[in-house]
Amino acid sequence: MINETSYSLGATRSVIRDLFEYGRARAAVVGPERVYDYSLGNPSIPSPPEVNRAIREILEDTSSLEVHGYTSAVGDLAAREAIAADLNARFQAGARAEDLFLGCGAAPELAAVARALACPGEEILAIAPYFPEYKVFVEGAGAVFRAVPPALPGFQIDLEALDAMLSPNTAAVIVNSPNNPAGTVYSRETLEALAALLTRKAGRFGHPIYLISDEPYRELVYDGAEVSFLPKLYRDTVVCYSYSKSLSLPGERIGYVYVPAAAADHDRLYAAVAGASRAIGHVCAPSLIQKVIARCAHLRPDLQAYDHLRRALAGGLAEMGYEMADPQGAFYLFVKAPGGDAQAFSDRAKAKDLLVVPGDGFGCSGYFRLCYCVPMEQITGSLPVFRQLIEETAHD
Ligand code: PLP
Predict the structure, then answer these.
(1) C-alpha 204 to ligand 1 mean position (Å)
(2) d(CA 239, CA 217)
(3) Same domain, 34 and 44
(4) Ligand 1 atom closest to residue 109's alpha carbon, by position in its atom list
(5) How confident is the model over 314-328, as pLDDT tens digits?
(6) Virtual CA dihedral for 16, 22, 27, 33, nearest 10 degrees?
(7) Which domain holds residue 25?
(8) How far is ligand 1, taken at its centre, from the CA of residue 115, in Å?
């Protein structure tokens, strides 16, 4: 017998993938320059040159057996020490190598942390709009996924709604800032209020409510926006970090889980993350790229190219009358659909070879997502199409 849940997860295609595949097929017919594809969040700036240099040096300097061998399941000590040093230099985190677990990117880390924190039937909450895979990870852990409705139009956190949803059955809350899909950054004020709420509720329920901070976009911020370091604001935070976007390494599959020393039940929680990873078949993160991180954990992306694209697209759309969340981070714009129906808008745009992702799958209807990791020519070419669409909708 084939497991039906696994079958349907594998057989159902995501809206984003569908749009992306459609775009490729259309490009083969009409030419790539005539398709304006804003669907997929694949980084479009190269990794810092130090990354490739480190790969070459490691291959030259280190024995082949060591480069390609298994590392310890929790990760190479040198890489964990380098990450701890970076966290301590930037945030005075007090991180130690033994608080860090190297994973194959944020996706498997989140899946493991959900399994480490929730017993079957317990709830994990996420703040809408949210990365749709959270539901898969949480349900895969046997837990119940619940979405806190979006706080329109600023896309901070609806603390009243969250307050009403927290219960003795809540194991954890997932936050993602800078946010996919909204491109927003939660303010320090929002996060302090969130921390106060969780502390109060955890006290009342008599058990910790963990905060899972999903941080693949931590370094991608503009206009001097501040990304608060959550373990400093809330003791029971678990960080899931990824180098997929910050160092443009999504195919190398590397990141880490950080369980701060002060977090409730630290040692058991860290062991549970390792155990949950083991249960989903994690052996160790890829060895070569762990060695790269040992040398490159301190590097940051050069954001000028993203910022340039962001300004061109957000500025062009705003000038036409499109409304959107303040795009302070990540590489997405989340735009209010003219006419109010994002699916209808996306269908209409698709007919003009403009591919935008309706927000419904992110738990937020009425908005569509644009990923601006695209060539500038695409932005310039697509703006007249956006203009046609908003004008047509106004005449409906
Ligand atoms: N979380 C968010 C919010 C994301 O947008 C992504 C990828 O796009 C992930 C997690 C997973 O990232 P990765 O597994 O590549 O680190």
Answers:
(1) 33
(2) 12
(3) yes
(4) 14
(5) 999 999 999 998 999
(6) -40
(7) 4-48+302-395
(8) 18
Structure tokens at 140: 């895969």
Distance 65 CA to ligand 1 centre (A): 31
- Total count of domains within the chain: 2
- Please give the backbone phi and psi of residue 9, each rounded to the nearest 5 degrees, phi first: -65, -40
Q: Are residues 67 and 178 in the same domain?
A: yes
CATH number of residue 32's parent domain:
3.90.1150.10
Greatest Cα pair distance in the chain: 68
Where does ligand 1 bind, in terms of residues with CB under 6 Å?
A: 41, 105-107, 131, 176, 180, 214, 216, 242, 244, 250, 255
Measured in Å, residue 344 CA sits from the centre of ligand 1 at 27
Please check whether residues 140 and 250 belong to one and the same domain.
yes
Task: Please choose from 42, 44, 127, 133 the residue to mutate so as to test ligand 1's pocket, defined by most ligand atoms within 8 A of CB.
Answer: 133
Residues 234 and 324 in one domain: no
Estimate the crossing angle of helix 266-279 against helix 106-117, to 10 degrees. Answer: 120
What would the pLDDT profile of 230-266 be if each residue is shown by its tens digit?
A: 999 999 999 999 999 999 999 999 999 999 999 999 9
Examine the pLDDT at 208 and tell me if it is beyond 90.
Answer: yes
CATH of the domain at 91: 3.40.640.10
Residues 175 and 103 in one domain: yes
SS (H, E, C) 226-260: CCCCHHHHCCCEEEEEEHHHHCCCCCCCCEEEECC
11 & 134 share domain: no
Mutate to test the pocket of ligand 1, among 134, 214, 240 (most ligand atoms within 8 A of CB): 214
pLDDT in tens, 50-59: 999 999 999 9
- pLDDT category of residue 14 using cuts at 50, 70 and 90: confident
Question: Considering 235, 270, 296, which residue would you say is the last residue of a domain?
Answer: 296
pLDDT at 182 over 90: yes
- Kindly give the distance from the C-alpha atom of residue 217 to the centroid of ligand 1, in angstroms, as a whole number: 8
Q: Clarify whether residues 223 and 281 are in a common domain.
A: yes
Report how far ligand 1's centroid is from the alpha carbon of 107 (Å): 6
CA-closest residue to ligand 1 atom 12 = 106
| d(C-alpha 32, C-alpha 378), whole Å | 10
Q: 131 alpha carbon to ligand 1 midpoint, in Å?
A: 8
Close Cβ partners of 110 (under 8 Å, ≥ 6 residues apart): 133, 134, 137, 174, 212, 214, 240
Final residue in a domain of this structure, among 296, 327, 353: 296
**Same structural domain for residues 211 and 355?**
no
